[in-house]
Design brief:
The complex is a heterodimer.
Chain A (H helix, E strand, L loop, with lengths): L11 H26 L14 H9 L6 E3 L5 H6 L4 H8 L33 H14 L6 E6 L6 H12 L4 E7 L2 E2 L2 E2 H4 L16 E5 L3 H16 L5 E6 L17 H8 L3 H11 L5 H24 L15
Parallel strand pairs in A: 1-2, 2-3, 3-7, 6-7
Antiparallel strand pairs in A: 4-5
Chain B lengths: L2 E3 H15 L3 E5 L15 H9 E3 L4 H13 L3 E5 L10 H8 L2 H4 L9 E6 L14 H5 L5 E3 L4 H13 L4 E6 L6 E3 L13 E4 L4 E5 L2 H15 L4 E5 L2 E3 L3 H11 L2 E8 L4 H11 L11 E5 L8 H7 L3 H13 L4
The chains are: A alpha/beta, B alpha/beta.
Chain lengths: 326, 329
């Protein structure tokens, strides 16, 4: 009998898959970081290295029909919701094979058909969209739940408060998951919020609020699973706060003057991927060799996505005016 | 034919569409038993129930986002904002979300929603409840913008807006709500992007929007007594704009006056005037294009001051006469 307490749909195979998925997210982000540094892709990007557990853990308990809304730091959410890394990398390269045919870039990867309602360049912008999607679920009796990712910074936007209130009064099937990575760009949570837990804001809207260790994928899964069941049962939304840390800067140009290297070191020691690896080895769900093999597979898949992206065609100028209107 | 008010025509269009399609619902503040700030949805909650006539909290950003999110996932929401001035509070959801999702997502999404909202001055509601900000939204690719001027048009254009797969901003003029016109009982649709020549004439073209259509028609009647024959073109939709009808009219009359209630500076009249100047109609112009718009001030409260802020029939008559007396070159 194992010690890991996980939701009933999470099999050993699923745990192994999640371990690999977290490496996919990590390698994807590191590759993107490398390419930006080399000037191989343009624009900007926001990386979620260190936050893999909240994305992978939260999406792990969803059904295929469930939906998510994401943020500017959304690559991990996309991968966790089942996006193809090829299409994601191609999008960052601005190619026609990208999720948005090269028109969206890093901040707008979406796959509406598959339930990813999109990353969002506006902080807090996606939260009301999640509520609208949940309203569709309720009105059309489609029985899906919407998982709404946002950050600590977004919890200070009016859109957050309006949206959570709406979801609460209408008992909508939404799970609000705040990835508190400690900084809104350079603004420390401690300076921007006069309360210990963002999850405590749930009380203002009469819904449950839970705090979880965002670097513990098992804790994230259990908390989100409970919230999803609550939502699917017609009981309305939950606000979950996953406390975590972004290892990299806010975006590609960030000297990180607002925090210490000691603090970064402390959080790096809480690597969510290594944590799951150790748990799975302890439970004899896989061996160190298995773990190493999965890590290598993930790495190869990301490298293959780079090749796919590089070989994909650039959009032609005749597509410029397409798709403004339906 | 049967007559309806503009307000009743809006309600009838929504009711008829809602009977045909369960995906259509209305959300907005006080639209339930209260019937909406102007009474447009009065009686609808009794027929359609509180799920589809969905009363919301006072959260313009949140409810606009909820409309966008529901449209993105298969519903066809009609969002009522009590006053068009409140669009300012909903701007992110409208401009950064609704307008852009389809393009940003590479064409793999659509946002079929209608935002209906009363605009314009003349009710004594002063600066924060009387604006005409249609140029703001007309500037944003991805949105469609409609300004119906008659009961007949408002019914047909609203059906077209509801059937459209894009976000449509539908401006209803407060002072037009009580105006009456012939409106067929059966459902009908007026294509977006089709201007209407409200009065044919040969001497001067007036392009007027919303309530200014009526003022232009009144000015035209007065001018006819002096033998000046004015053509009044109502674009009806700003986006898409039926430039062909305007250009054809200017080619015929060789003179153009553009009139709207919105502040003249940066108003949509500038777009219409420039588009005509860039078109083949330029060579036909016998006088500079004349623009009439609201004064560059917030709308004041005092009735005389309020009236003096926006173009009146006399101003239009004056502008037409100036256009006739002025020759280029």
């Amino acid at each position: 009998m194992r010690n890991l307490k996980v939701p009933e749909m999470i099999t050993d195979e699923k745990l192994i898959e999640l371990y690999k998925q977290m490496w996919q997210i990590r390698f994807f982000e590191e590759k993107v970081d490398e390419f930006f540094a080399k000037g191989m892709i343009h624009g900007t990007t926001h990386l979620a290295v260190g936050q893999e557990a909240s994305a992978a853990g939260a999406c792990a308990v969803l059904e295929d029909r469930d939906k998510i809304t994401s943020t500017h730091r959304g690559h991990g959410h996309c991968i966790a919701k089942g996006a193809e890394v090829n299409g994601m990398m191609a999008e960052l390269f601005g190619r026609t094979t990208g999720y948005c045919k090269g028109k969206g870039g890093s901040m707008h990867i979406a796959d509406v058909e598959k339930g990813n309602l999109g990353a969002n360049g506006i902080v807090g912008g996606g939260i009301p969209l999640a509520v609208g999607a949940a309203l569709t679920s309720k009105m059309k009796e489609e029985d899906y739940v919407v998982l709404c990712f946002f950050g600590d910074g977004a919890s200070n936007e009016g859109s957050f408060h309006e949206a959570v209130n709406l979801a609460s009064i209408w008992d909508l099937p939404v799970v609000f998951i705040c990835e508190n990575n400690q900084y809104g760009m350079s603004g420390p949570v401690k300076e921007m919020l006069n309360m210990e837990n963002i999850a405590d804001r749930a009380g203002a809207y009469g819904i449950p609020g839970n705090v979880v260790d965002g670097n513990d994928i098992i804790a994230v899964m259990n908390s989100v699973d409970e919230a999803v069941k609550h939502a699917r049962g017609g009981n309305g939304p939950t606000l979950i706060e996953a406390k975590t840390y972004r290892w990299k800067g806010h975006s590609k140009s960030d000297a990180k003057k607002y925090r210490t290297r000691e603090e970064e070191k402390e959080w790096r020691a809480k690597d969510p991927i290594i944590r799951l690896r150790d748990q799975l080895m302890e439970e004899a769900i896989f061996t160190q060799e298995d773990a190493e093999k999965l890590r290598e597979e993930a790495k190869k898949e990301i490298e293959a996505s780079v090749e796919f992206a590089k070989q994909s065609p650039e959009p032609t100028l005749d597509t410029l005016m397409e798709d403004v209107y339906a | 034919m049967r007559e309806l008010t503009y307000l009743e025509a809006v309600r009838e269009a929504m009711s008829q569409e809602m009977r045909e399609n369960n995906d259509i619902f209305i959300l907005g503040e006080d639209i339930g038993v209260y019937g909406g700030a102007f009474g447009v949805t009065r009686g609808m909650i009794e027929e359609f129930g509180p799920e589809r006539i969905r009363n919301t909290p006072i959260s313009e950003s949140g409810i606009t986002g909820a409309a966008v999110g529901s449209a993105l996932t298969g519903m066809r929401p009609i969002l009522e904002l009590q006053f068009s001035d409140f669009i300012t509070i909903a701007m992110d959801q409208l401009v950064n979300q609704a307008a852009k999702l389809r393009y940003m997502y590479g064409g793999k999404a659509q946002v079929p929603m209608v935002l209906r909202t009363p605009a314009g001055s003349g009710t004594g509601a002063a600066a924060q409840h009387s604006q005409s900000l249609e140029a703001w939204v007309a500037h944003v690719p991805g949105l469609k913008v409609i300004q119906p001027s008659t009961a007949y048009d408002v019914k047909g254009l609203l059906k077209a807006a509801i059937e459209d797969d894009n976000p449509v901003i539908f401006y209803e003029h407060k002072l037009l709500y009580k105006t009456k016109g012939e409106v067929p009982e059966e459902s009908y649709s007026i294509p977006l992007g089709k201007a209407d020549v409200k009065r044919e004439g040969k001497d001067v073209t007036i392009v007027a929007t919303a309530i200014m259509v009526h003022k232009a028609l009144e000015a035209a009647e007065n001018l006819m007594e002096e033998g000046i024959d004015v053509e009044v073109v109502d674009p009806r939709t700003l986006v898409p704009l039926d430039l062909d009808t305007i250009v054809d009219s200017v080619k015929k009359t060789s003179r153009l006056v553009v009139v709207h209630e919105a502040v003249k500076r940066g108003g949509y009249g500038g777009e219409i005037a420039s588009a005509v100047a860039e078109s083949e109609a330029f060579d036909y112009l016998d006088a500079p294009v004349k623009r009439l718009g609201g004064k560059e001030i917030p709308i004041p409260y005092n009735p005389d001051l309020e009236k003096a802020t926006v173009p009146q029939v006399e101003d239009i008559i004056q502008a037409v006469k100036e256009t006739l007396n002025k020759k280029i070159g």
